[in-house]
Amino acid sequence: EPNAVFTAAALTVQAQLTQSVPFRTPTLPLAAATNTSVSVPTLPSATLRPAASATSVCDQAQFVKDVNIPDGSQIAPGASFTKTWQLRNAGVCTWSGYTLVFDSGDLMGGTAQTIGTVSPGQEAQVSVNFTAPTTPGSYRSYWRIRNSSGVLFPVLGGTQGRSFFVDVKVVAASSGYDLHTRATDANWNSGAGNFSFGGPDTDARGFAMYRNNQKLEDGTTPAKVLETHPQWVDDGVITGLYPAYTVVSGEHFKARIGFLAQSDGTCGAGNAKFQLNYKDSSGVIKPLGEWTDTCNGTLRDIDVDLDDIVAKTVQFQLAVLANGTSGQDLAVWVSPQVRIP
Fold first, then answer.
1. Same domain as 220, residue 203
2. Is pLDDT of 59 > 50?
3. What is the mean pLDDT of the chain?
4. Is position 38 within any domain?
5. Quick one: 164 and 201 in the same domain?
C-alpha cells in the first residue's frame, strides 16, 4: 500500500536522524537582576574608635622646667626648702582633684600635694616642701602625678617617661678655720725639737709669732701676719701642726706668702719653700701644696681647693724649709685660713 510504504520510510529517516544528531543541552537565559530584598540575619553594630594619637590621651603631663633648686644645689643639713617644677597638661582631660605623689628615692620629708585645676594645654607650677637630711651627701627624690581615680600617668620628658625629681647635695655649713688665730694652739717644731708659739725671735731653734701690721717686702702692712722662721741652720725647717678640723665641701685654703722687709725697708735675701700639709686619721703627713718663694718685692697668692679631703677630719700643717742659709728667711703667711671663697 502506498501510504504504508511512505509511513515506513518516514519512520526510518526519523530514527536515523535521532541516532546521528548529538544531544545539546539548551542554554538557559540568565535571570534578570531585580531589586528583590534578601533577608539577612541582624548582627550587633560595632562602635568605631578613633585612631590613637598624642592628643587623644586623657591623662598625660609634660615636664617643662625646674623653676628653682637646680640639680646639685647645696643645702645645709636639716634646712627646709621648697622645690617647684613647671609642667604642662599634655592630655585631653582637665586635671581636677589630681595629686603630686612620691615615687621613689629619698623622701626628705616630702608629702603629697593637691594640684589645682589645669586645663588641657595649660602649664602649671607644682611644689613640694622638703627638709634636708642631717648627714652630708647627695640626695634625689622622684615624684609623679596621680589622677582622681588613683591612677599614675606618664610624664613626657620626665625620667623614664614617668617622673620628675629634685636633686640636692647636703653640705655642712662652713665655720671656716683661721690658721692665723689658731696659731697659738698649734704644735710648733723644728729639727731642734718643740717650742712654744710667740718667740722670742732670737730663738736658735726657730720661732713662730705674730707680725701684725709690720711692713712686708711689698711695702704693705696687713693686719694678720704670721711669721714662721726656720731653725737657724742651713736648710733649717719649721712646722706647725694644728688641732683637728673636718673639711666642708667647697672650702679652700687661702693665704699670701712672702717675707718681712728688713729693718731698713729693703727686701733681704729670703729664699724658702712654703708647704701646706695635713695629717690624716692614720697619722700620716700628706702634702696639699708646695711653693718656692724668694724675697722679690711681691707677695704670692695661694689658693688650694680642698675637695680631695672633704668630710675628712684632718690636722693642717704649715711648714717652711730654708733653701740654703736661713738667716734672712723671715717667712710670713698673710691671713692663712680655710674657707669657702
1. yes
2. yes
3. 87
4. no
5. no
Summarised one tens digit per residue, pLDDT across range 83-116 is 999 999 999 999 999 999 999 999 999 999 999 9
> Is 243's pLDDT higher than 70?
yes
Alpha-carbon distance of 230 to 331, in angstroms, equals: 8
For the chain, give the percent of residues with pLDDT over 70.
84
Contacts of 267 (CB under 8 A, 6+ apart): 217, 259, 261, 295, 296, 297
Per-residue pLDDT tens for 129-158?
999 998 889 999 999 999 999 999 999 999
Name residue, grid cell 637630711. Answer: 133
C-alpha cell at 107: 623622701
Among 128, 152, 170, which residue terminates a domain? 170
Name the pTM for this structure.
Answer: 0.59
Domain that residue 139 falls in: 54-170
Burial of 77 per CB tally in 10 Å (0-12, 13-18, 19+): middle
Please give the grid coordinates belonging to residue 322: 730654708
Residues 64, 165: one domain? yes
Last residue of a domain, one of 114, 145, 170: 170
CATH of the domain at 75: 2.60.40.10
Instruction: Count other Cβ atoms within 10 Å, centred on residue 14.
Output: 10
Residues 320 and 193 in one domain: yes
Are both 211 and 275 inside the same structural domain?
yes
> What would the pLDDT profile of 162-219 be if each residue is shown by its tens digit?
999 999 999 877 789 999 999 999 999 999 999 999 999 999 999 999 999 999 999 9
In a domain, 252, yes or no: yes
Which residues on adjacent β-strands are paired with residue 141?
105, 166
How would you class 16 by CB atoms within 10 Å of its CB: exposed for 0-12, middle for 13-18, buried for 19 or more? exposed
3-state helix, strand, coil in the chain (%, to 5): 10, 40, 50
Separation between Cα atoms, residue 93 and residue 87, nearest integer Å: 15
pLDDT at 56 (0 to 100): 78
Q: Tell me whether residue 120 is exposed, middle or buried, using C-beta atoms within 10 angstroms of its C-beta: 0 to 12, 13 to 18, 19 or more.
A: middle
